[in-house]
Amino acid sequence: MPMFGDQRVELELFEAEVKKRKPADLLQFSANYFNRRLEQQRSFARRQETLASSKGIVLFPAASEQECGAAASLSLEESESGGVEKPDVAFKSPFAGDDPHSTHGSGPAAGLFKGNFDVGKEPASRSESPMCPRHDEEPKAKKANANFQPLPTNFNAERRTSVSAETFQPSSLDNWVPPHYVEKNKQQLQRLLKAVGGSFLFNKLDQDSRKLVVNALEEKKVPKGTEVIKQGDEGDFFYVVEEGTVDFYVNHHKVNTSGPGSSFGELALMYNNPRASTVIAKTDCVLWALDRLTFRKILLGSSFQKRLMYDELLKSMPILKSLTTYDRAKLADALDTELYEPGQVIIREGDVGENFYLIEYGECDVSKKGKGVINHLKSHDYFGEIALLKDLPRQATVTATKKTKVATLGKSGFQRLLGPAVDVLKLNDPTRVQESQEKDPAHA
Ligand SMILES: Nc1ncnc2c1ncn2[C@@H]1O[C@@H]2COP(=O)(O)O[C@H]2[C@H]1O
Ligand SMILES: Nc1ncnc2c1ncn2[C@@H]1O[C@@H]2COP(=O)(O)O[C@H]2[C@H]1O
């Protein structure tokens, strides 16, 4: 059976946790782990329900406090630095008190397995049931909620609809809670917003996604010299730098350095590739780590949307074959899209050149005054490089002959981001070929 993306990521996350914790009793650990995830998810859903009901909408009609019993006896979950998650939950993990790995400190640890899953046995009271409501009680529950209104199909609880959320199927985020969700205290929030609030990571997020991401970030204080990421390893976390500087090494050669406000560790999570570089703290650092699942669920579809969008195009362009995944990702960040109708001029001969163009789909004619059409371009071809390479006016006019979609790269990006591809562009310069043909028509 094919697995959905969410299921795969959830299982990968679990696998990573098993590798990290190396539990002696795998079954007990698994039961505890998934019950804690379920508990978190129910807690989050409950908060959404409160908000929905304030708008007159009943989200989970059968799971009212009365029906489920007052199971909100969860211990408070304290964050490392004092943040507190509120126990507003109608679901309690049957293992919460017994879990040797649990962060919940309350409950008597009586016996190895003290779940409420006694098959065929009615729980003493419904508040003890791990799942509430039970399916066989649904009709009664509906009756109890006479004012139940069906939800609008696009109702998204706390979530505001925004363009970025829509493109990432908002329903897939409903009731979802990050695995390391810990509400930040005021001081942490202020620090985080100062460090990363203005960065591209957060600019594209709606208010609710931003809140989820902020509360999913875990603070990591890293001493100078620490290897934060090792090239070739599997990706687990994405990092944002609050303080300090990190160095990047590819095959032991230093390739990059970055400081406060920057981020790293996204490539392995985006492309399911091994880590592309080793990252070492050059100074003592304060980093914020975001788990793989939250990264993929929220940031990938918004902040890194361009990379997804241009990935296929860039991978299939012959002139970009020499670029690494990292180079391609940086290039994608700098691209924009333009759409042209048949007959529209994209570039006019003699104009100043500002952009380089990659044809995503469509076809174009290249023409020159006094010569007419001298070339024809189609999808995955490029144009506009000569003015930028040679600092000359546009050498020809480029006109769309079919509906054409192009990705454009500005002058500064062209010089910074094309790397070794620039040499290929120089080699392929059509004016050079033309000039040599004009000088020696025998080679035409
Ligand atoms: N030149 C570079 N090549 C590869 N990775 C780099 C480079 N500079 C910075 N990085 C970052 O280093 C990270 C290592 O882990 P990832 O491959 O997940 O993501 C990588 C990038 O975010
Ligand atoms: N034979 C050609 N002569 C000039 N430009 C060409 C030719 N064939 C394709 N072109 C493209 O047309 C573009 C017009 O703008 P540029 O001069 O910046 O870059 C040019 C090339 O990318």
Give a short overview:
34% of the residues lie in helices and 19% in strands. The chain has 444 residues and is an alpha+beta fold. One adenosine-3',5'-cyclic-monophosphate binds next to β6, β7 and α9.
Describe this structure in words.
With 444 residues, this protein is of the alpha+beta class. The chain has 16 helices and 18 strands. The protein has helices at residues 5-21, 26-54, 65-68, 138-144, 163-167, 186-196, 200-203, 207-216, 267-271, 292-299, 305-316, 325-334, 385-390, 411-417, 421-427, 430-439; strands at 77-78, 84-85, 218-222, 227-229, 237-243, 246-250, 253-258, 263-264, 278-281, 285-291, 336-340, 345-347, 355-361, 363-368, 372-378, 382-383, 397-400, 404-410. The protein has a 4-stranded antiparallel β-sheet. Helix 11 (305-316) packs across helix 12. The longest helix is centred in the N-terminal third of the chain and has 29 residues, at 26-54. The chain starts with a helix and ends in a 5-residue tail after the last helix. Mean pLDDT is 74; it is low at 59-171. One adenosine-3',5'-cyclic-monophosphate binds at residues 229, 235, 248, 250, 255-256, 264-268, 275-277, 279, 326.
